[in-house]
Amino acid sequence: MGAYIIFKDVTNLRSLEEMVQRSDRLAMIGQIAAGTAHEIRNPLTSIKGFLQVLKRTFETQGMSKEQNYTDVMLAEINRINELVNEFLLLGKPKHIAYEQTDVSEVLSEILPIINNEAVLHNVHLQYKASTHLPEVIADREMLKQVFLNICKNGIEAMVEGGTLTISESVETSDHFVCIDVHDTGPGIPSFVIDKIFDPFFTTKDEGTGLGLSVCQRIIHDMGGMIRVSSKGYGTTFTISIPYP
Ligand SMILES: Nc1ncnc2c1ncn2[C@@H]1O[C@H](COP(=O)(O)OP(=O)(O)OP(=O)(O)O)[C@@H](O)[C@H]1O
Ligand SMILES: [Mg+2]
Q1: Which is the CATH superfamily of the domain at 99-242?
Q2: Ligand 1 within 6 A of 199 CB?
Q3: Which atom of ligand 1 is closest in space to residue 213's alpha carbon?
Q4: What's the pLDDT tens digit per position in 116-170?
Q5: Where are the chain's structural domains?
Q6: DSSP conformation letters of 13-43
Q7: Which pLDDT tens digit goes with each residue over 64-92?
Q8: What is the CA(192)–ligand 2 centre distance, in A?
Q9: How much is the pTM?
């Protein structure tokens, strides 16, 4: 008897789809770039910290020439920091090297860096080692990044000084090595705590908000998890890494 044929112009829809895909890709590139930039800033922070300590020593010993050198170096580091902040560094993903790793050993290697950061912020560092931690399968450098990021957050949270406690333990029932990082800072409000692992979420003027999202990705890739508990006063981050 008859038929209806309906034509619909979908050109707009198509180009919209393309735009969304493109912006997804751009967002991803941006995230990778920012993540790389963030991890360049971490070692820079420790270099800067030790230089500041050196500068103080030179100051107290009246070594003005050496003090000038440290000033120049600090200014240059600030320049790199600014560049890193501005530039989009399109780095390839780093090669990951999983190996049998002694978590205590990794921690004791970076303890001086954490302690230095703590001293500069008037924070007391406490380390409770556990004997005979089982070895985990992990990338050492990445583990260092995780511990540094989380300790740095704790230290930064204690603006009026306090104590940062790092303690090791083993959950034998689930086969996890656990590292607790506890600070005596103000804690994390409940309306913030759900967002802290989101990329780019930050409450700091100078923060990128990538620290915890990078940490979480690294620990997830190792089959572990990061939990946080904060009840009004103080915060504890627990990093659990499985052992075979
Ligand atoms: N120990 C802590 N105490 C209180 N708040 C915390 C603590 N750790 C993290 N946070 C909150 O989580 C947010 C996200 O942390 P994250 O490390 O991802 O980024 P950031 O520290 O702000 O920036 P960046 O790591 O780039 O310097 C912080 O801005 C802060 O509000
Ligand atoms: Mg951080």
Answers
A1: Histidine kinase-like ATPase, C-terminal domain (3.30.565.10)
A2: no
A3: 18
A4: 889 989 999 999 999 889 999 999 888 988 999 999 999 999 999 999 999 999 9
A5: 11-86, 99-242
A6: HHHHHHHHHHHHHHHHHHHHHHHHHHHHHHH
A7: 999 999 999 999 898 888 777 665 433 33
A8: 14
A9: 0.71
